[in-house]
Specification:
This protein has 650 residues and is of the alpha+beta class. Helices cover 25% and strands 19% of the residues. The two termini are 43 Å apart.
Amino acid sequence: MIRPYAAQAPTTDPGTRAHRRAAPPRRAGGYRRAAALAACAVAVATGLAACSKAAPSGSVASTTGAFGGVPTASGTAHAGTLTWAESPGSSPTWIFPVTPGANFTVTTIDSFQFEMWRPLYWYGNGVRPVLVPSMSMADMPVYSNGDKTVTVHLKTSYRWSDGQPVTSKDALFFLDIMKAAVKESGANWGLYTPGLGVPDQVVSASTPDATTLVLHLNKPVNPVWFTADALYYLQPIPVHAWAKDSPNGPILDFTNPANAKKIYDFLAKASGSTSTYATNPLWQVVDGPYRLTQFNNTTGGYTLTPNPTYGGPHSAKWPAVQAIPYTSDTAEFNAVLSHSVDLGYMPLNDVPQLGAVKAAGYHVFGYPGWGFAFANYNFADKTGDFNNIINQLYIRQALAHLEDEVGYIKAFFHGAGGLAYGPIPSVPTSPYTPENALKNPYPYSIATAASLLKSHGWSVVPGGQSTCAKPGTGAGECGAGIPAGTKLAFNVIYASDPVIFGEQLTAWASDAKKVGINISLQSGTSNHVITVANDPGSPKTINDWAVAVYGGYTDAYYPTTMGIFNSGGSFNGGFYKNPEADRLITASTTSPNTDAVKTEASYLTQQQPSLFQPNYDWITVWKDNVSGQPAAIMGTTQYFLNTELMYLTK
């Protein structure tokens, strides 16, 4: 599964960026970077073991994505409150872990709910999109019965804040309540994909003892995929406190579907009351490192206090967290320059002021997110025979050769970005990164683009209008469905915010004109572009756009593009159809071959079902008196808030 985001904007909130969700299923697939930084592993005890060396600092590597550096943990830990900047519009809107699609953002899930209720398996070690056993609530799952049975053993170190142990029944409780939620509506859980993963592939589940959960599936699965893209989303929730249908009601048997529906309805209604988040006793029973003590439902600001019963890794004295909402990036950046927020961010357009940020007493580190941005091709647009034109691989290759990713990062991202040539970016790296994701298979070259067109029957007119001179399907001809005289001309609709969308497209269109391709650029609001160009189920606007730019997707930790580039996928807004891609995508979720997703990504990188674009860095800044696990600080660039692994030195 993968989670879509609209406007991958340096000047918009990370919640919007990573989880936009144009339509109910959300993550079709999971989460960054350099080998040198990978050594900064997450600590497994109350003390914070640091990396042996600090990451390089102060330099910008535009083609690798690292920006700034993270020093080793240092100083004496002191108790206190860490202030954290909430970017505009990023306040959490849902507290109950079974989260609807309309509320499914990284700032609601990763940096709010996960502070109070942890998932069974933790993915994300600093900037690396990998599983972290030391931060997981369960040992590695065991697959048997031809990969149709999954056995999960929970660790015994986790307890609820009221002293009760976290048990396998709490994990089963989440699964049954999720099942009740999607039975009412698939929109009630943001990652629901009918027939795929949890809960639909779970035929039955049992808890033979207090620490064992057994799932029986309806068909064999790829174990790596199911762990990363299904089990990852299971969050134990407290049966003894939440399995009821009224505030003072008795504990109900949640395994009874009728009771599960009542419980879900009660909890969902309570979660809709944001004004009671900090006072409702339900939400005070937590197993994560924090509990909520204040929540302003007008501004979205909130305060988290350490949970002393937390059984996972943490600093000896981890801080309370005060989330401070800002109404604009300018307001937040002014707070940084005035030294009035402990942990914040630097908007991309303010990168030239890096020196001023450091002078204000801050460290700086930036990294691209784990995912991809794209210009999505419409394979169904019949305007000017665009559907037949874009269906030709050589056309998509030529268009890729006209994209100057390195130049875009330098000119528009101020050097703070990473290259991406396919659905798995070059950075952050992961075990599933294919070779052709590390070196551009279609390097920037106007001459190569022109040569491809000429060798396939086009009369190339630099600065003018190229047309098909040799129609047909043979060697050296334009391809099926492209008549003689067909023009290489099409429109691109794109979200006007952030400005980097328009900047990149303007440069791309300018270079395309040099080989006689005429691209008409049309900007609009993000919502408008999404409405027009990201609705696979509606053909009303199918001929209104040839290419659309509205953001991209955050990859799943096992980064299959199921739902995006498979035929009929719920996020396949460009109507891409390729039998080989379908076969490889299906294999990623069902084959026992752990390299299946790498094969899928390699094929899609070669096929270019969309124009893949570079990813900008999310740039974190933190005061000199904030220290802790380097991986925890790096992880903020991936929208995780692991402040339990940080501390204040004064």
